[in-house]
Amino acid sequence: MPSSTSDAGLARSLEGGFVGRHAEVGGVRLHYVEGGQGDPLVLLGGWPQTWWEFHKIMPGLAEHRRVIAVDLRGMGGSGAPAGGYDKKTIGRRRPRAGASSRPRQGGHRRARHER
Q1: Is the CB of residue 3 less than 8 Å from the CB of residue 14?
Q2: Residue 29: is its pLDDT beyond 50?
Q3: Core-most of 21, 26, 43, 82, by most CB within 10 Å?
């Protein structure tokens, strides 16, 4: 059992050297937990989940990958966007073609997380 129920304490309780961090993305402070080494694997939960939804699988994944589990905007330790969540507002936040901050896309697989 973790000694602390804070995000930082919960992250440290996982095997794989997990730590909680924050990043400013599109004007919103996002919380994420990362650990492990290797090629990055980003875990995004559904609404209204947080990074903790993946805590049982993160240590195993971290044996071969750098695991990054993100709290979506307005969930967990992440801030909420000032303009709301309606489709029109979210659509304006989409990265533009050729944007330098756009991640490199390689091969990918879709995975479905079951409880």
Answers
A1: no
A2: yes
A3: 43
